[in-house]
Amino acid sequence: MKPHKHPEHTDNIWLALEIGNSRLHWALFVSETLYSVWDTDHLPESVIQQLAACQTLNDLLEKIFPSHQRTNEQEGYGDNSLPLFASLPPLLVASVVPSQTAIWQSYPNISVITLDQIPLKGVYPTLGIDRALALWGAGKIWGFPILVIDAGTALTFTAADANECLVGGAILPGLGLQFATLGQQTGQLPLVEMQNFLSLPIRFALNTTAAIQSGVIYTILAGIKDFIEAWWQLFPNGKIAIKGGDGTLLINYLQALYPEIADSLIVEQNLIFWGMREITKLL
Ligand SMILES: Nc1ncnc2c1ncn2[C@@H]1O[C@H](COP(=O)(O)OP(=O)(O)O)[C@@H](O)[C@H]1O
Ligand SMILES: CC(C)(COP(=O)(O)O)[C@@H](O)C(=O)NCCC(=O)O
Ligand SMILES: [K+]
């Protein structure tokens, strides 16, 4: 991260937090400039209460920004010109885990984004705020119509047309969830770990672990290809963006199996943060 000029005021520092079902996803903004992004596990209520008691940005970041994820510049937070002794920044939250949202209420300066704050048209009341924000962020940056694939705990497809109106989407168990379910809900199947496999598994496998990898991976890839082809039937010039913890892994597999599809995808982990940034312009 190249050093930015020192932010003029400290009051335009804000934190974005995406609460997913597996992890927390963080972004540190100065006005509209994204300084750092990192992931953590869900935080216990006790830690969240400690955060509320922090006096400075530095104290806060020490508790939520694991040092191994910081940039290498003297363990900076993506930029060593941050006014670390500024007071606690405002926290903008997008959550799909109501129990987590509830325990974050103790943070002093929190705003939880709701669907009505997103200008996306045609949404339904239970649409995931993460899906709406990622779609809004992707569309505002790369243009509508656009399809967003989020390879998170759940794998989701969420699409909008040229009028920034929801076309609709789909939800299915993500890679990790599928491996976990097979390992936990059966008598004999092992829990296949989600280490980053390098090459595609053998499709007609000759051992149990490879059979699980093949079943989960090839059907998810086929499903992604099928939805993308259906999307291109509806919107031949429609763009496609992909995010999520399994995004990079799936992109590598797609590159091997369906290169023309892989080459057409916009890979952008920060889609939700771009969506949140758009919302701050409306606040
Ligand atoms: N360090 C990690 N911790 C948890 N899940 C991870 C990690 N790295 C990759 N993943 C994969 O990413 C998926 C979760 O994606 P993520 O976008 O973090 O989830 P969510 O936003 O739903 O919390 C899991 O199914 C898992 O396979
Ligand atoms: C489908 C989701 C669980 C995905 O969340 P994630 O996998 O990122 O934790 C989330 O978007 C959600 O709770 N959606 C609500 C239902 C809907 O979107 O129709
Ligand atoms: K997610």
UniProtKB/TrEMBL annotation:
* Protein's job: Catalyzes the phosphorylation of pantothenate (Pan), the first step in CoA biosynthesis.
Instruction: Quote the subcellular location field of this record.
Output: Cytoplasm
- Cofactor entry: NH4(+); K(+)
Q: Where does K(+) bind?
A: D150
The residues the record assigns to binding ATP are E18, I19, G20, N21, S22, R23, L24, H25, T153
> What does the record give as the reaction this protein catalyses?
(R)-pantothenate + ATP = (R)-4'-phosphopantothenate + ADP + H(+)
Can you name the source organism? Answer: Nostoc linckia FACHB-391
Q: What family does this chain come from, according to its entry?
A: Belongs to the type III pantothenate kinase family.
Q: What is its main location?
A: cytoplasm
Instruction: Output this protein's name.
Output: Type III pantothenate kinase
The record's note on quaternary structure and interaction partners says: Homodimer.
Which residues are recorded as binding substrate?
Y124, G128, I129, D130, R131, T208
